[in-house]
Design brief:
- There is one protein chain.
- With about 210 residues, this protein is of the alpha/beta class.
- It has one domain: 3-Layer(aba) Sandwich (Rossmann fold).
- It is about 30% helix and about 25% strand.
- It has five helices and seven strands; from the N terminus they run αβββαβαβββαα.
- Strands 1, 2, 3, 4, 5, 6 and 7 form a seven-stranded mixed sheet that branches.
- Strand 3, helix 2 and strand 4 form a beta-alpha-beta unit.
- The N and C termini lie far apart (about 55 Å).
- About 10% of the residues have low confidence.
């Protein structure tokens, strides 16, 4: 093989890129800590019965998903044993007053009204995102007892197409790049439900 053939072979390798090489495993999550905007000053609500309403979902997302998200948060609150009774409620509401009215009708002391602001499942190279805001409302007074927000995202696992990376891959034998499957959005929501439960339990910080 003469010098011209070698140069042509190298050029083909560079043009093809090395998308099959790179980071092994799924791209990491960029987990934002919960932001507590309102919280009670005492533990007087610990014995309250809690009703969890369907979460309000972003436009274009089936409303039934709000029931599934509510179930995640209800199960997490039950698992942490923060309140003696946690029930899942049904019913549509447009504002906090209507949410409180549904809680009163159900006979609970606190009602949890949540909203999923964004929900992107991502692709095989990452890009998943979710954000949630949650209020626990006192059904007797209508006041907000807790107000917590949180967001979580996953970076895109893009291949390194720089000239240095291409030349390095040509000169060395590397394992094939594994396809990075984005974690399902429900997994992000479940982790945020756990963080909320920890906050309500009195944690000053959550694991990242």
């Amino acid at each position: 093989m003469n010098r011209l053939h070698l140069l042509l072979l190298l050029a083909c390798c560079l043009l093809a890129g090395c998308a099959s090489y790179g980071r092994q495993g799924p791209p990491p999550l960029e987990k934002g800590a919960p932001v507590v905007l309102i919280h009670p000053l005492t533990d007087s609500y610990r014995q309250a019965t809690v009703g969890v309403l369907p979460f309000q979902m972003p436009p274009g997302v089936n409303g039934e998903e709000g029931l599934r998200v509510a179930a995640l948060f209800k199960d997490m609150l039950l698992g942490k044993r923060i309140f003696p009774v946690v029930r899942q409620l049904t019913g549509e509401y447009g504002d906090l007053d209507e949410a409180v009215a549904l809680g009163r009708k159900a006979g609970v002391g606190l009602v949890l009204a949540g909203q999923v602001g964004s929900l992107l499942a991502g692709t095989e190279i990452g890009g998943a995102r979710a954000s949630v805001s949650v209020r626990l409302l006192d059904t007797a007074s209508g006041q907000t007892v807790w107000y917590v927000e949180q967001a979580m995202s996953q970076e895109m696992d893009l291949p390194d197409l720089s000239l240095g990376a291409r030349l390095g891959s040509v000169m060395s034998v590397q394992p094939l790049r594994q396809v990075a499957a984005a974690p399902p959005a429900t997994n992000m929501l479940a982790r945020m439900a756990e963080d909320l439960a920890d906050v309500l339990q009195g944690a000053r910080s959550v694991s990242r």
